[in-house]
């Protein structure tokens, strides 16, 4: 991996951490001072942003839960992509040796099957009446 790609990954990781920390802190603030009986009091007591998140569940979902879920899904997808894309550690000579060994074993197996089939057909072959004379 070159330096430019590493730098991009570090920057993206730092942004993700910042977003997740923001979501966690805001979620703690929203749920620690929640007053379901008086929404107007929650807004006055906790400020406009936290109070609005306490009174509006859809806004809370799209501000806190959705970004965190999206980050986890994107990171998981990238992890799967990277794991599938990863190249083999075998060099060409090792790959060709493995391929030749597999071909040899396949040939031996086919020959054994043909011999077994030939012997079976010879045993099951009815005797020729002309041979008994």
Please give the structural blueprint.
Blueprint: H1 3-32, H2 39-46, H3 48-55, H4 57-85, H5 92-124
Helix pairs in contact: 1-3, 1-4, 2-3, 3-4
Order of helices and strands: HHHHH
Mean pLDDT comes to 84
CA(first)-CA(last) distance: 84 Å
How many separate helices? 5
Please give the largest β-sheet.
none
Q: What is the general shape?
A: elongated
Helical coverage, percent range: over 70%
Approximately what portion of the residues adopt beta-strand conformation? under 5%
Structural Rg? 35 Å
Count of discrete structural domains: 2
Category from helices, strands and their pairing: mainly alpha
Low-confidence stretches: none
Total beta strand runs: 0
Structural overview:
The chain has 133 residues and is an all-alpha fold. The chain has five helices and no strands. It has two domains: 86 residues, no CATH class; 35 residues. The N and C termini lie far apart (84 Å).
Question: What tags apply to this protein structure?
Answer:
mainly alpha; 2 domains; 0% strand
